[in-house]
Amino acid sequence: MNEVAALAASPAGEDVLLPALEGVVRETFGARSTIAAIRRMTAKDQTSHACHVVTVRLGTREELTLFFKDYSSYKGRRPGMKERSERELRVYRDLLSGTDLGTARYYGSLWDQPQGFFGVLLELVPGTPVRYCEFPYWLSAAGWLGRMQGYFARHSTLLEKRDFLLRHDEHFFHSVAEKAARSVLERSPELARRLAPVLSEYDRVVKILASPFTTLVHGSYGAGQVLANSGVEPPRLCPIDWEFAGVGPALYDLGVLVDGFKTPRLDELLDTYRREATAHGVPVPDNDTMKLVIHCCRLHRVMHHLSRCMERNYPDTAVSSLMDMSDQLSKVVL
Predict the structure, then answer these.
(1) What value does the mean pLDDT take over residues 287-297?
(2) Per-residue burial over 186-206, b = 16 or more CB atoms within 10 Å of its CB, e = otherwise
């Protein structure tokens, strides 16, 4: 038990982690199960927060390996980090738990307000981000969205009264555009004049994005936020990093995933999503309409980045590139 004692006595919230692990072990292996040793290592892939792989060895020599995301480790001044952390924890605990969608299993959370220690314990899911995988895994990621949306269409009450979720509605899309206008004006009055014609017609984009069919959205469903585990059959897809989760239009996440693709691969991605979504009872428009919505999603993401150009001190080249993208997309959707 020396390793356990050392863990309990060490700093950085370990005295909170140990009781949480004991609770996980009792729930997973039975009330009489005891911990013989604990090993904690820094995870290979880090996020905005410190992440650790925690291996618990029982007296029976069984082992349980967990992924520990330490929300309290973030030391920056970025606004909204506390809300983002709480949102992700509650998505895992309240929405994804028991869904059989392949997401990481939720084991528990740690919260010690006096110490300011806050984190979540999840299943350690082996896998490679889809962005580094062959194209078939991208297709699987598109299909996963259809299955996930079908699940929440069948269990729509799960999304009711979830105030921790962002609302991707008309107000949300307009607010991002308005923040972009202020940020660009602060950066350059000349660029603000260039952006003005796009913003004057932006209500059309908002109307297209604010679909009447809403579902759970990941909010940042890029290929770097989806793990693919090819070691099981069928391969397991596991979306991670749910800090921007919300309720919004079904095509929002798809628009993030397929950004940058062109025909014929774009059509393959859309067709794969359509098959899975339709099979699970999710209404899907025709491909031309889907492409229009996806272009609107891209324009919204451009506005999102422009809205942060001063806060993040983007270089002039990056802002110029974003303005060019805004001009190009506005010609398609406006």
Answers:
(1) 93
(2) ebeeebbeebeebbeebeebb
Q: DSSP string covering 220-283, please?
A: ---GGGEEEETTSSSPEEEE---TT-EEEETHHHHHHHTTT--TTHHHHHHHHHHHHHHHTT--
8-state DSSP, 92: I
Q: Report the candidate in 285, 253, 301 with the shortest Cα–Cα distance to residue 141.
A: 253
Burial of 22 (0-12, 13-18, 19+ CB in 10 A): middle
Query: How many other C-beta atoms can be found within 10 angstroms of the C-beta atom of residue 213?
Result: 13
pLDDT on residue 1: 33
Helical H runs in the chain?
Answer: 2-9, 14-29, 81-90, 135-154, 170-187, 189-200, 202-209, 251-257, 265-279, 287-307, 316-333
Q: In Å, how far are 44, 48, 102, 137, 223 from 127, measured between CA atoms?
A: 12, 19, 12, 12, 12
Over the range 227-261, which residues count as b (16 or more CB within 10 Å of their CB) and which as e?
A: bbeeeeeeebbbbbbbbbbbbbbbbbbbbbbbeeb
* pTM, 2 dp: 0.90
Domains in the chain, ordered, with CATH? 2-123 (3.30.200.20), 128-333 (3.90.1200.10)
- d(CA 269, CA 37) in angstroms, rounded, equals 46
Q: Which amino acid is at 290?
A: M
User: Which amino acid belongs to residue 73?
Assistant: S
Whole-angstrom distance, CA of residue 117 vs CA of residue 13: 6
Could you give the CA distance from residue 108 to residue 25 in angstroms, rounded to a whole number?
Answer: 11
Computed over every residue of the chain, the mean pLDDT equals 91
Reported as a pLDDT band with limits 50, 70 and 90, residue 5 is very low
Q: Which of 13-17, 136-140, 197-201 has the weakest average pLDDT? A: 13-17
Neighbours of 2 (CB within 10 A): 7
Range in 16-20, 27-31, 110-114, 311-315 with the lowest mean pLDDT: 110-114
